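Annotated sample (chain length 264).
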Amino acid sequence: MKVLGKMENQFFAYLQMRQLTTVRSGDMQVALGLSAIQERKLLSRLSRAGMITRVRRGLYLVPERLPVSGAWSADPTVALNTLMRELGGRYQICGLNAFNFYGWDEQVPMRIYAYNDKVFGEKELGSITVNLIKVDAKRLGAIRKVKRPDGVVAVYPSRERALIDAVYDWSRFNSLPRAYRWIRKDLRDGKISAAMLANCALRFGDVGTIRRLGALLEAEGIDETVLRSLEKSLKPTSASIPFIPRKVKKGRFSRRWGVVMNEA
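Output written by the structure step:
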């Protein structure tokens, strides 16, 4: 275990006695009689040593009990929840994390991807990097709150929403054409509803998403009512898009959806 100085021992003793798991700049000035400079150096020193986790400037997460090794990193979900609560924002885990959560992709992401309505960019939360993708608040929704045994709640997209994200945000997550296989299998296994999938595309997708999904669902023999709901949202166009981006646009042309079926 790392050897703690008097100030560090007082810091952890104070927080553990009061069962606090967060600390803000200014708290220790009153509690321990520190100057602003002393407090800033203490928090910085503990953060660099990996004994507390900086969530944002002036806000830190601390362990309920310091591990024997002294090193500690906040739970990524707790850190993300704390950050969003501090910013007054909403978020939902997305992309590779959602694909793994639903069992479509076995690869365990080394970072967390999250749509949110407050901040954009990469952020280090302890030992985990979080990719914060700022979107319009209207693009947040169709969520599933997952409560862990320890009571911590993580916000994921619904199964249908995660699949629509895989089509809509394909360039960010490199998820096409894999997403088409996931959609086909989930439809055939009865794990998703074509109607709900179409609804998610209309709410959270764009024109390209709707056109590609329409072409896919038509090829799968989905009920015409669902197809017409997608078709009604589209304006007539002579432009074509590939079913699989970044692949030669060559194959059967679906005039109804304006999609070149270049999957073969």
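Annotation: The longest helix spans residues 36-48.
Annotation: Residues 88-157 form one domain.
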